[in-house]
Design brief:
470 residues, alpha+beta, six-stranded antiparallel β-sheet, two-stranded antiparallel sheet, globular, binds adenosine monophosphate, binds magnesium ion
Length: 470
């Protein structure tokens, strides 16, 4: 890997991480290299070898380490989590001057592995590759996938499965849980250093810990509104899976909805629907409140005053979220101007879609390309909404088609397609993986394969549960 590493995290004091060389694997083999991403990182794609991407060799300039973090998992605080199966190789400065982490996921045990084997199997690696790259193509902030390699080793889960390593690129891997780890230890000095590091890296204009909290609050409000606009359900919004940068991170039991219902849950471990589609903004605030709590000692020496200031920042989340949500959904129904009734108009469509269990993606796309009434089971419900919508569109200055085309993807990574791709890959056929990546790279365009990948699952193909990335 010919890359110019500059490892700022490795320069932080040693309580932030454990230095850890990846554990070698039997016979690494390249599955995919994201050449365009490599080039944007200033890395020659031809210099990316299976040996280095599997962790069998450490690239020149890398300083491998596992990051410490803590986190609330489904509401329960765990004071020490950390990278149990991921190793940060280091950071590079990309072509836009932005610092980016390069991390191997599935690279062996670390001091934070607890009971785990430090490995990943092929399914979750390819799922994260496909879904994170699709998210990027949809224009929503996310970590990226630079490469996937097969390890030539098996991992034991519910079955014996082929092992793999994902090379993940992120603007950082700082999480809400990273702050919680030091707050829980009462290490205010480490918190101060972490806050400075996060500000310098992500929000250079932010002033102090309160400025950081404000910036993260805005970034998360924008991110979650973006998810809502494409029907994405993260699935495990634990505080250790919420990045300070505002990028989507940790694609585990995540999914894009087919049939729309606000209470949709996919994750097999989310029994209470804590991370259901419609709960995501509330969980966003809850997680940000944990960040705020961690930062309190840095905000004011008087705890009550610090709480007042932090609460004021958190209370702005619904406004940030609401403004972004309506901006995105206005575009989805073709509106560029603003009217007080727009929120109700959008909700009117969504509630009709919920009643009909209409396909989320195809209903919005059909507003511009086809007959959206076909997506709803009740023609009367559609007609009444359509009348209101047309009256509203009549007050718009321009033809709404282009706005809607750019806001409503034709294709998303549908669950049944992702599962089918994984099944094929396990059998050694990577063609569906490649096709899926190809189609999802241009989600707003109609291409030769679009119709095929835009079809919702048949009842027999429906994926009702998704499983954790382990
Ligand atoms: P996740 O649910 O994937 O966000 O992971 C939660 C925690 O479990 C993190 O600290 C992971 O590093 C750790 N973890 C998950 N899978 C494994 C594994 N196979 N081996 C070791 N640690 C793991
Ligand atoms: Mg995680």
């Amino acid at each position: 890997m010919r890359a110019s590493f500059d490892n700022s995290y490795a320069r932080l004091p040693e309580q932030f991480y454990a230095r850890q060389i990846p554990v070698p694997v039997a016979s690494p083999r390249l599955i995919a290299v994201n050449r365009r991403l490599a080039e944007s990182l200033g890395i020659d794609p031809d210099s990316l070898t299976a040996e280095e991407l599997a962790g069998n060799q450490v690239p020149d300039g890398a300083e491998p380490l596992a990051q410490l973090y803590a986190g609330h998992q489904f509401g329960n605080f765990v004071p020490q989590l950390g990278d149990g199966r991921a190793i940060l190789l280091g950071e590079v400065i990309d072509r836009d001057g932005k610092r980016r982490d390069i991390q191997l996921k599935g690279a062996g045990r670390t001091p934070y592995s607890r009971g785990g084997d430090g490995r990943a199997w092929l399914g979750p690696v390819l799922r994260e590759y496909v879904v994170s790259e699709a998210m990027h193509a949809l224009g929503i902030p996310t970590t990226r996938a630079l490469a996937a390699v097969a390890t030539g080793e098996n991992v034991i889960r519910e079955a014996v499965l082929p092992g793999a390593v994902l090379t993940r690129v992120a603007s950082s891997h700082l999480r809400v849980g990273t702050f919680q780890a030091f707050a829980a230890r009462g290490d205010t000095e480490a918190l101060r250093l972490l806050t400075e590091h996060a500000i310098a890296r992500h929000f250079p204009d932010a002033e102090g810990p309160l400025g950081l909290l404000k910036a993260v609050t805005q970034a998360q409000a924008r991110l979650i509104a973006g998810w809502m606009s494409v029907g994405f359900i993260h699935g495990v919004m634990n505080t250790d899976n919420m990045a300070i940068s505002g990028e989507t991170i940790d694609y585990g039991p995540c999914a894009f909805m087919d049939a729309y219902h606000p209470a949709t849950v996919f994750s097999s471990i989310d029994h209470q629907g804590r991370y259901a589609y419609q709960n995501q903004p509330n969980i966003g605030i809850w997680n940000l409140a944990q960040l705020a709590t961690s930062l309190l000692p840095l905000i004011e020496s008087d705890r009550e005053e610090a709480i007042d200031k932090a609460e004021e920042v958190l209370h702005a989340f619904p406004d940030h979220f609401g403004a972004e949500w309506i901006r995105l959904f206005r575009a989805k129904i073709g509106l560029v101007t603003q009217d007080d009734g727009d929120g109700a108009l959008i909700q009117g469509l969504l509630s009709r879609m919920a009643t009909s269990q209409a396909d989320f993606t195809n209903t919005f796309r059909a507003l511009v390309t086809g007959d959206a009434s076909e997506q709803l089971t009740d023609p009367g419900a559609w007609d009444s909404w359509q009348g209101e919508w047309q009256a509203r569109l009549a007050r718009e200055p321009d033809d709404p088609a282009a706005t809607m085309r750019a806001a409503n993807p034709a294709v998303i990574p549908r669950n049944h397609r992702v599962e089918e791709m994984i099944t094929s890959a396990v059998e050694g056929d990577f063609a569906p993986f490649e096709r899926l990546n190809e189609v999802l790279a241009h989600p707003y365009d109609e291409g030769p394969l679009t119709a095929d990948y835009a079809t919702p699952p048949l009842p027999s193909e429906r994926v009702l549960r998704t499983f954790c990335g382990t």
